[in-house]
Amino acid sequence: MLTDIIIIIPTHKRQHYLNRVAWYYSHFDMQVYICDSTPGGAFNIDHYNNINYIWCPEKTFYTKILHVLNTTNARFYATSPDDDFLVYETLMECYNFLLGDKRYSMAIGRQCYFNEGFKNNTVFTNIYSNGLYGKRIDGNKIQNSIKFWSNYQNILWTLFTKDTLLDAFETLERLHYDSQNFIELTLGMKAISHGKIYLSKDFLNCREVSTAIHWGNLEKEISISNFFKYKSMRKDMTKFWNSENTFSSRIGFLCYLFVSSNRIIEKVRALSLKLLNRGKVTISIDDTKLSSRISNALSHV
After folding, report:
1. pLDDT beyond 90 at 178
2. Average model confidence (pLDDT) for the chain?
């Protein structure tokens, strides 16, 4: 079993997902920590040798991640939601790359999706979830920051060096932003400050499309318009600006604000991504092995 990579799965009030995610990751040759802050009682999770279940109702999202980081000793940590799955082969590709090059602080893959229940056995993707597709984030810090934050992509659920993830979550715990959208902004800036970023061309995250409301949709978007509209957003942006006080971080933050607030740029970016993806908005993935893994996982409830 690999000892220098650990997967962290935080969960809260969603214990119905835990047996299926435990079964799925029981086939990975690494330790997995499921941190459950659901009040009312621990969950009777299926037992597997590499699955560590921690019931911690007193802990927040930040402190759950920090608890695992501070009580374990691995070089790399992958984070994943309780309802989604990491693709093992791509995780190993990212792990082996970071293992062989200490200049890199984080490794990202592409994202794909399956509908709730996996009723049609189809895995698909879309251009808006893979903004960094075809990019290279291996220049100097200023170049990396500009390129990275001008091409936004979800980065919370990916592979990090321990120093990068620990630095990010210690900062988040200290600052306590009103908008949780600053989680990914902090992770990205810390990753760039710690090194370069590896981008796999393969799919790393396989995410469930659910009818339930996602917490990210309830948060205020980090944008110029919201800066003027909400006092809490002004406070959050000031916190971030003062905390990430390197020139490259601030340049990256301004690029992010400019792109996220400019609909014309968003349309041009979408068009370029369509061209990269051969003009298709949705791409089916013919992967019977992955489909079988997902189907089997969903049967464990």
Report:
1. yes
2. 90
Strand partners, 33: 8, 52
* CB contact at 8 A, 230 and 266: no
Helix (H) or strand (E) holding 110: strand 104-115
Task: For helices 18-25 and 288-298, give the axis angle rounded to 10 degrees.
Answer: 140
Residue 126 has a CB neighbour count (10 Å cut-off) of 16
pTM score, two decimals?
Answer: 0.92
Sorted by sequence, the CB contacts under 8 Å of residue 244 that are 6+ apart come out as: 186, 189, 193, 250, 253
Query: What is d(CA 21, CA 254) in angstroms, rounded to the nearest whole number?
Result: 38
Instruction: Tell me what percent of the residues of the chain surpass a pLDDT of 90.
Output: 70
DSSP, res 129: G
Cα atoms in the 13 Å half-sphere on the side-chain side of 100: 7
Contact 294, 85 (CB under 8 A): yes
Cα-based distances in Å from 81 to 6, 205, 260, 282: 14, 10, 25, 23
